Automatic annotation (TrEMBL):
Residues the record lists as binding [4Fe-4S] cluster 2: 221, 225, 228
CDD domains listed in its UniProt record: Radical_SAM
Entry's Gene Ontology molecular function annotations: 4 iron, 4 sulfur cluster binding; metal ion binding; tRNA-2-methylthio-N(6)-dimethylallyladenosine(37) synthase activity
Cofactor binding note: Binds 2 [4Fe-4S] clusters. One cluster is coordinated with 3 cysteines and an exchangeable S-adenosyl-L-methionine.
Reactions that this protein is recorded to catalyse: N(6)-dimethylallyladenosine(37) in tRNA + (sulfur carrier)-SH + AH2 + 2 S-adenosyl-L-methionine = 2-methylsulfanyl-N(6)-dimethylallyladenosine(37) in tRNA + (sulfur carrier)-H + 5'-deoxyadenosine + L-methionine + A + S-adenosyl-L-homocysteine + 2 H(+)
Name of the protein described by the UniProt record: tRNA-2-methylthio-N(6)-dimethylallyladenosine synthase
Region feature Disordered, mapped onto this chain: 1-21
EC number(s) from the headed UniProt entry: 2.8.4.3
Location in the cell: Cytoplasm
Amino acid sequence: MNEKQREENSQVNPEAKKTEKDYSKYFQAVYMPPSLKDAKKRGKEDVQYQSDFSIPEEFKGLGNGKKFYIRTYGCQMNEHDTEVMAGIFAALGYEATDSTEDADVILLNTCAIRENAENKVFGEIGHLKPLKLEKPGLLVGVCGCMSQEESVVNKIMQKHPHIDMIFGTHNIHRLPHILKEAYLSKEMVIEVWSKEGDVIENLPRVRKGTTKGWVNIMYGCDKFCTYCIVPYTRGKERSRRPEEIIHEVRQLAAQGYQEITLLGQNVNAYGKDFKDLDYGLGDLMDELRKIDIPRIRFTTSHPRDFDDRLIEVLAKGGNLLDHIHLPVQSGSSEVLKLMARKYTREHYIELVRKIRTAMPNATLTTDIIVGFPNETDEQFEETLSLYREVEYDSAYTFIYSPREGTPAAKMQDNVPMRVKKERLQRLNSLVKEISAKKMKEYEGKVVEVLVEGESKNNPDVLAGYTEKSKLVNFRGPRETIGNIVKVKVTKAKTWSLDGEMAEEAIEVK
C-alpha cells in the first residue's frame, strides 16, 4: 500500500456499513498494543492483498551510516521474517553487523511457541539494558510472535522501559514507519496489529547464503489446537497467489539455489482460502517440480489437510523430496481430542499407510508433546506404541507447558513435573533407539549430499544434508560447498553420518 492509498484508507467514512471492517486505525496509531480478544476472531472479510510494497521516499537514507543486528528465535518462519526485515534495513541504508556492541538498532525476533523460548528472550532483554544505558541513541526492539501476546507487551512496558519499540508479525512491512517514530518519540513505540492478517508482496529480502532458500506460501493458522498460541500470533490462514510463488522459485533457481523449503504454519492448508480457484498444495507442487531446482521440501504439515492429491503428486518424485514432517503430538485418540487436533490415532495411521503405499521409501519425522493435561500412563503408552508402529526417523519431543490465552491453559495441569520428565526420558530413549537403527542402514551406501559448509565441530570437515535430511560429515575440497556431491557412508551415529567422497565427480548444478 503506497502513501496515497494509506491516506485514502485513513479517511474511511465512519457511516460505512458495519459489515465492512474499518482498517484505517491500523495506519494511524503509534501506540497500538495487541488484543487477544481481537486475535481470536475469524471474520469473513477478504484478505488485503498488497503487491506494490516499496520504501517511501521520505524514509530512504534513514539508516545511512548506521548498523543493525537481528537475533532470531524459533522456527523457519521467523528466520524468513528476519530475511525480510534485513532486506528492509538494507533498503533504508543500514549495514548488517554480527555484534550488538556496534549496532545502532537491535531487534529480537521472538518465538512464543514454548515457555523456554520466552524466558530466553526476557533474559536477553535484561542483558541489553547496560548497553542501552551506555549508548542512549541505540534503538532496541522486540518483534515476532511474543509481541502479539498481551501479557508479554504488558510485562515489557512495566519492567523493561529501555525497550524502544514493539511490533508484531503483521507489521513487518511497517518497519520504516516504526523506526522513524522510535527515533522521534520519547515514549515506547508499540504497533501490534490484531487484525486477521494481510498478504504483502514485493518485500525486499536479504537471504542467508545461496544454497538453501525459504519461500513462504501461506501465513497463519485456523486450526486452534488447544495448546497452541500460533493462531493468535500469526492470524488467519491466507495463501499467496500461485503465480507469485512460482515466480519467486524460478528466481531462486536462476540464482543457483539447490534447495527450497515451502513454508507455512499449516502448509498443506495452502489454497483452501482461495475463492476464485480450486487449487491446493498438490497443484502447486506439481507445477514447481517442473522448475530446474534439485530439491523442494515443505513444512509444517497438519494431518487433517494432508490429502490424496498431495500424496499423488509427491509420489511422482523428481525434485519433490519424500522426507515428510508430520506432527502427531500424541498417540492417544482421547488426548488428541483434548488437543482439538480433529483426527484420531486410526486416521493418522491410515494416512501413514497411504503415504508409504505411494512412496515406499518415504521418511517420516514428527512432533510429540508429553504430559498434556489429563494424560494417563495408558495414554502415554499409546504414544510409545504409535512411535514403534510408524518407526519415525526422528522426532522433536516436548514437555507440555501452558501458553497464556490458549484453551489448554484453563485446564488443570494435573500431570506432575516428575511424571512429565520421566515420560519424556522414556520417549527420547525410544526416539534415540529407532534413529540409531535407521542410521545404521546407511552404512556402506552412497548418498547425495548438499554441502552447506564446514562442520561446526571441525573446520577441516565439510557438512551437508541428504534428501532425507540426514546430516553427513566428510572430508572434501571446499569447492564442493554449495553443490550436491556423492558421499559413501563409512560410519553411522545416532544423529549423523560420517563418510568419504565417492569416486564419482562432483555434480555441479
